[in-house]
Amino acid sequence: MSMGHIRAVCWDWNGTLLDDAEICRQVMNAVLRDHALEPFADIGAYRSVFRFPIRDFYGSVGLGEDRFVSAATVYLETLAARAGEARLHEGARTTLSAVQELGIRQVLASATVAEALSQQMAPYGLDDAFEAVLSIDDPFRASKHDVIARWLATSGVAAKDLLVIGDTNHDREIADDLGAEFVHFDGGHQHWSGESRRITTLREVVDLLVSRAGDPDLVEVV
Prior knowledge:
Blueprint: E1 8-12, E2 18-19, H1 21-34, H2 43-49, H3 54-60, H4 65-81, E3 87-88, H5 92-101, E4 105-113, H6 114-121, E5 132-136, H7 145-155, E6 162-166, H8 169-178, E7 181-185, E8 197-199, H9 204-210
Parallel strand pairs: 1-4, 1-6, 4-5, 6-7, 7-8
Antiparallel strand pairs: 2-3
């Protein structure tokens, strides 16, 4: 399917533009050790288990409902203390600039509360890249669906003309529910499920947007 009709791109932050999966694995491992649970041996093990809803992810590693809030609180506090350590994924800045030059609107959406998201973004100076930065208000119910839907409703952009780019099942499910296009970035927090288009470098986004035929070879990696 061609993506020449896309008028706006909704970027995920953590794992998609920001290369923070390894840091998050380290922080989660510290939480797991505090609870005498087995840590993730490597980034592949982490990415194979990570998913939304975030409670399900915690439950799958032994942090069930009785420990979820306390464990998630420690995780978020520890992660906040490491803000600025992660780098942007290769090609993030040039890709954002290239999409802007195509005349395509860009917003950022994150399953992070506003204050924490602002702290995470501050070192990278990307505020001017987006017409809106969308965040959640409940750190224990990490869903971006409603904030993206509200932006879409007031944007003048039809859902079918929105491209959501993210690295998790949550991003794909949001796009599907809204009727938007979706591309999975296979370099973040969750392995590609095989249920969508995927890219392995951010630069491929520009190829997608300018491709007249939406050639699947641009995004399929074997």
